[in-house]
Design goal:
Two copies of one chain form a homodimer. Chain A is of the alpha/beta class. Helices cover 42% and strands 16% of the residues of chain A. In chain A, helix 7 links the parallel strand 3 and strand 4. Chain A binds a DNA duplex through helix 2 and helix 4. Chains A, B: GO terms for molecular function: DNA binding.
Chain lengths: 360, 360
Amino acid sequence: MSAPSNKQPVAAGRSAPSPLPPRRARVAGGITLLEVARLAGVSAMSVSRALNTPEQVSAAILAKVRAAVESTGYVANRVAGSLASQRSRLVAAVVPSIAGPVFQEMVQSLIAELAARDHQLMLGQSGYGTQEEDALLDAIIGRRPDGIVLGGVVPSAAGRRRLVASGIPVVETWDMVQDPIDMLVGFSHEAIATAVATFLIERGRRRLGFIGGNHERAARRASAFVHSALHGPAREREISAHVETVVAPATVRSGRQALGEMLRHQPGTDAIFCSSDVLALGVVTEAAARGLRVPQDIAVVGFGDLDFAADVSPSLTTVRIDSTRIGQLAARFIVSRSEGLDVEEAKVDVGFSIVSREST
Amino acid sequence: MSAPSNKQPVAAGRSAPSPLPPRRARVAGGITLLEVARLAGVSAMSVSRALNTPEQVSAAILAKVRAAVESTGYVANRVAGSLASQRSRLVAAVVPSIAGPVFQEMVQSLIAELAARDHQLMLGQSGYGTQEEDALLDAIIGRRPDGIVLGGVVPSAAGRRRLVASGIPVVETWDMVQDPIDMLVGFSHEAIATAVATFLIERGRRRLGFIGGNHERAARRASAFVHSALHGPAREREISAHVETVVAPATVRSGRQALGEMLRHQPGTDAIFCSSDVLALGVVTEAAARGLRVPQDIAVVGFGDLDFAADVSPSLTTVRIDSTRIGQLAARFIVSRSEGLDVEEAKVDVGFSIVSREST
DNA sequence: ATGAAAGCGCTAACAT
DNA sequence: ATGTTAGCGCTTTCAT
């Protein structure tokens, strides 16, 4: 149809500026909800409902939408959805390292539990100083996750303030601190240290040692261990306790070296509590290399009950934490909270157990 | 002021519908860019620029904005930013388990490298069957990450298609496959298997064994190992090779059990290649328990060069992969791509090395 | 049960 | 260098 039925106005001097100069379309993303809606012959809202709350939609529409989605390979853009609904379905976790005994299991469990509830995990690693950690917290807050899980991370005062100000649900998961930021799923380092000291003293050990990482988390256990050894209820006679510190992360090698240091500083040490099974394996290995018998000459207790603890020789006595449960509870608390439910019990002590094996 | 200066119209039948009935305001989020702009006395764009591209802004505005941000504790909403800019600054990674020898290090390195470039990592775990894996991929695609890193995950044909259709940059990081989906940073399982077989045969071993997980990744190495042993260049005389499979994940325990099976099925086995150092530790432990000397009676090679490999006794000969480099390259490729740069070499073989220690 | 309109809080594109 | 405008692709709210 080339007939100029509606003639365009021929240039009259300078053309009047059109009121809405059509600007270049922004780069087209992929296919959108609207296109699916057109294809299905329904409104955008019906597509949204068919995808998110299918029970609110008639069978007819459901079928049409499903067909359109199928044929286009449409995957809804959750960034847009998050912005509109103010729920990101993203949860952030910050741990010192995913390699740690408790954290690895907790992160795995978090991922699994969140996935089952249609949420995803964003993972951050702290442990490079306060400044980086605060920057990391801001990066996380900027994404408006539905929750933040802190594993063994003690935020700075400033970080803590921002966390609170953000209004994002927070679950701390390491120590049973007195004044949690928000929710808390943890275990008591003091209780563990006391229990292990008592366990060893009851078995006749008198010269105790503690080997742990050079960070606050291990330090808490160390001081509680020493205190329990020297002043605890099990104390009947002369007991000594000494602490050796290794540079994090804990390795078999640092465990071996630390035993050397321990024997130099406190000869005759007859029992050692390590802040990780990996360190304990190093201690056992080094003891063997030095002709010390485990447990006759020296008893060794680890932490974490890693998979190898039961199967090395001698098998390791260790402290077991149910880290999977920690992850599950943290995930549930956050998801419940973001669904507007009141979280019944937001402060849980998951406890611990001492698994007694050959090394003691 | 109770004087009715402007009398409200008394109900005149049904009141005429006002053209724009003001609806209830949506739940207010926190503080927004616009409020910061008002506080600073500048436009929203100036705040945006001051935060994202400070070099494009005058010192005066920069100062005003900084002050306003400081006083409000404003943290920009990246969900909105992502939607507007079509860049999420999120990268997704999928691994069978974060506990695996290569993956743990790769994930750590990914997190660190991405954080340095102002990106975050979203982590998924596959390994629960094709159906869950495809669902996971869809959940990831829905978030429109700037890239997806696949670690030891071989997507189904359907998953592969969706990945390609999504247009999201993908880095595969496990095997040097022939036809990568997109980018590739890996190493050759075949080359490793051949090298280890040759290594063992050259040292006089004749009855070889392979112990690996019951999944495709290990299976590739297993068959290449057997093939190299039976048909490889190093073959001078009678050589046998046998494969034992353990249920994933690999543990010290399954390594111990597998050695038992191996000796039952192929008595006189004098060298074993394990698909993980953890399995190798189990084999060494079980050998000791059975009175077999390592390496005199049986040589053991692990995989991963985990931190304990050098420090257990006997120390483990193992295959070392530079997983940190894999993570770095993957992160760089993706970030570069999302910045519109052409990625120079998008197919990298990071190689491997055999670290020879006491166990051989 | 379905649809229309109005944003969610930013940034790209354009204009000055 | 700074501001204005119009979306990004969804979901909430309200009306039918």
